[in-house]
């Protein structure tokens, strides 16, 4: 199975699969999703903006996500995982509060005072650079659903099979190029998978100050 050269290559390939989209709004999940979304928006002649999400980490091990939150939405928790950890949603209330603050900071950094583009009655394509557990994508899709779009498509280059399958419950359509059996991490399917900064996101969006 061939690797994507980088996120731009993955986005160009996804764009070919999204050509039937009708005047969509592209909402990319920062940071990596923005690099994938830029060639999609360019190829489709579509509006592009960010939809900011944050992982809700397990307090003793923050790298372990027990949920996620997207701007305009409510926290979405992995309740079975919380149960296995002997925790409730109230036990991570402080983490949720911290992530709300960071989410608000990033919204200001990426969009300033500008709101999300209007999506009511429009086709929306939510883009990320890959799906592992799918926590942030799930939070993003539920937040978008509250804005009453006509259709929501999730588009990612690569994802874990079980996660991709579960996303069909959250989106009207799911477009994924690779669902490898030996999926371990998103980055393993890219030849180049650099970490991106806020400055990189602003450059990709053409919003450098």
Automatic annotation (TrEMBL):
The keyword Chloroplast does not apply. Residues 9-163 form the Phosphoribosyltransferase domain. The keyword Phosphoprotein does not apply. Keywords: Glycosyltransferase, Transferase. GO terms for molecular function: glycosyltransferase activity. It comes from the Bacteria. It holds the Pfam family Pribosyltran. This is Phosphoribosyltransferase. It comes from [Actinomadura] parvosata subsp. kistnae.
């Amino acid at each position: 199975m061939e690797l994507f050269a980088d996120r731009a290559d993955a986005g160009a390939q996804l764009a070919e699969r999204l050509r039937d989209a009708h005047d969509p709004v592209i909402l990319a999940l920062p940071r990596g999703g923005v690099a994938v979304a830029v060639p999609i928006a360019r190829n489709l002649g579509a509006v592009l903006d960010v939809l900011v999400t944050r992982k809700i980490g397990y307090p003793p091990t923050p790298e372990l996500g027990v949920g996620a939150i997207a701007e305009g939405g409510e926290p979405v928790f992995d309740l079975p995982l919380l149960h296995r950890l002997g925790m409730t949603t109230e036990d991570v209330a402080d983490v949720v509060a911290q992530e709300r603050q960071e989410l608000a900071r990033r919204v200001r950094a990426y969009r300033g005072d500008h709101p999300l583009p209007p999506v009511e009655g429009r086709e929306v394509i939510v883009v990320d650079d890959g799906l592992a557990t799918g926590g942030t994508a799930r939070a993003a899709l539920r937040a978008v659903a509250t804005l009453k779009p006509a259709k929501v498509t999730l588009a990612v280059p690569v994802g874990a099979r079980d996660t991709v399958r579960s996303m069909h419950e959250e989106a009207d359509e799911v477009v994924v190029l690779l669902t490898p059996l030996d999926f371990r991490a998103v980055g393993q399917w890219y030849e180049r998978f650099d970490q991106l900064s806020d400055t990189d996101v602003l450059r990709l969006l053409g919003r450098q100050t």
